[in-house]
Write a structure and sequence with these properties.
This protein has 13 helices and 12 strands. By secondary structure, it is of the alpha/beta class. Among the domains are: about 5-80, Orthogonal Bundle (Arc Repressor Mutant, subunit A); about 170-275, 3-Layer(aba) Sandwich (D-Maltodextrin-Binding Protein, domain 2), CATH 3.40.190. The strands form 3 sheets. Strands 3, 4, 5, 6, 7, 10, 11 and 12 form an 8-stranded mixed beta sheet that branches. A two-stranded antiparallel sheet has the order 1-2. A two-stranded parallel sheet has the order 8-9. A hairpin with a 2-residue loop joins strand 1 and strand 2 (about 55).
């Protein structure tokens, strides 16, 4: 019996729904059902029964839940203690200088804000730069690493700089956020094609990687670009346009996993799939820079611990 299967079981029990648990755990309903059937066979019991439109625990399922809660709690406590050991072992009291692309500064750091603060990883000064500026800063010795986002298709271009090493921390699929009024119907399985997107009003964040994606996507497919309503760094205005059904915008799978939208909007997968990575661009001097090396190790440990369910589906 694996710990993760007990975590799946507890999430289903709390949600009283396989579909809702599937969304929270980043696992297909088919995969979740398969795991529960295997757990039932292993224990020789039935865990759930139908109740109205949802499900509820059987008596045996309730017994398992009480034990599973304690097992999962102890497992989480263990991971928490081991994670804190990693942080303390590599920790440094000095303020670290971090060079990061605009997406990392304005999206990733905001999403991880509370976690960074909790574990002391907000003890840094941040310089927002484009990728080429970070490479130049590493060349000049101003920093030994940068936190960058890059389209999957462009990772090989970094081979032009053999002294640099790129290590992904997160892999993300680009998605589209739209109101129900603007989402094309029918939209099977929550999928949006580039052709459908080309006919919608668009508002999106002015960011180099996203700009490059939009330019390529429509040029390569010989489609007209969508009507651009807003292209700026005013993220609140972009969200307001989406909520009022005046535009659609881009999101990504990691943002969806952390931020639970309270408004009545849909999150649609683009077809064909478009991927990008967020990771560490490391110069040869990082191994000799104790403070910056410790920061990178801590950040990697934090993401691996706090977002392990996401990483189990979207493998780096």
């Amino acid at each position: 019996m694996r710990i993760e299967v007990l975590e799946y079981f507890l999430e289903i029990a709390d949600c009283k729904s396989f579909s809702q648990a599937s969304d929270k755990l980043f696992i297909s309903q088919q995969g979740l059902s398969k795991s529960m059937r295997a757990l039932e066979r292993e224990l020789g019991i039935t865990l759930f029964r139908k109740r109205g439109r949802g499900i509820e625990l059987t008596e045996e399922g309730s017994v398992l839940k009480s034990h599973a809660l304690e097992i999962v709690r102890q497992n989480n406590d263990l991971h928490e203690r081991l994670f804190k050991l990693q942080v303390n072992r590599s920790g440094s009291s000095e303020t670290v200088s971090v060079y990061a692309t605009s997406y990392v500064c304005n999206a990733i750091f905001n999403l991880l804000d509370n976690e960074l603060s909790e574990y002391g990883l907000d003890n840094c000064t941040i310089s927002e730069c484009e990728l080429n500026e970070i490479i130049s800063a590493i060349d000049r010795g101003e920093t030994s690493f940068g936190l960058v986002n890059i389209l999957e298709k462009d990772v090989k271009q970094l081979e032009e700089f053999p002294y640099l090493q790129f290590t992904p921390l997160l892999s993300m699929r680009i998605t589209v956020r739209a109101s129900k009024n603007l989402a094309p119907t029918p939209s099977p399985n929550g999928v949006l094609t580039l052709e459908q997107l080309s006919k919608l009003p668009l508002a999106y964040f002015n960011e180099p990687v996203l700009n490059k994606f939009v330019k390529r996507a429509f040029e390569e497919s010989d489609l007209e670009c969508p009507t651009l309503i807003l292209h700026s760094t005013n993220i609140e205005r972009i969200h307001a346009l989406v909520r009022s059904s005046k535009a659609v915008t881009f999101s990504d799978t990691f943002t969806q996993s952390v931020r639970k939208w309270s408004d009545d909007t849909l999150l649609l997968d683009l077809e064909p799939s478009q991927w990008f990575h967020v990771g560490v661009l490391e110069g040869p001097a990082l191994k000799n820079n104790t403070g910056q090396r410790a920061y990178v190790q801590q950040l990697r440990a934090l993401i691996g611990f706090k977002h392990r369910h996401y990483l189990s589906k979207y493998t780096v």
